[in-house]
Amino acid sequence: MALHTVNLLPGARAAETVLAQLREGDAVLFHGDGAWHVAAPGLTAWAESGATLHVLAADLAACGLTERCDSRVAVADAAGFLALTEQHTAQRAWF
């Protein structure tokens, strides 16, 4: 089980690489530019990967997406981010 922190805009070529590496039990935390994924049409591919999806609350608000966040994505504060790092021994940063 790995935690993938994603700071990539929707449509970035590297996003396809991340998707190919996701496994059941993994978690994805969208942050920075990655927060835009929560309202993008391509979110379905992420949701069907078997990984749980999360977004940092501060980045969600900074992008003005609080009201547009897809229900398949859990909103995490700093404590939630810390909990994800504790639950997943392997971590991969994508940017």
UniProtKB/TrEMBL annotation:
| Annotated signal peptide | none
The processes (GO biological process) annotated in the record are: tRNA wobble position uridine thiolation
Regions crossing the membrane: none
**What domain of life?**
Bacteria
One matching Pfam family, short form?
DsrH
Which organism was this protein described from? Pseudohaliea rubra DSM 19751
List, alphabetically, the GO terms of the cellular component aspect.
sulfurtransferase complex
Q: Which Gene3D superfamilies match?
A: DsrEFH-like (3.40.1260.10)
Please report the name of this protein according to its UniProt entry. tRNA 5-methylaminomethyl-2-thiouridine synthase TusB
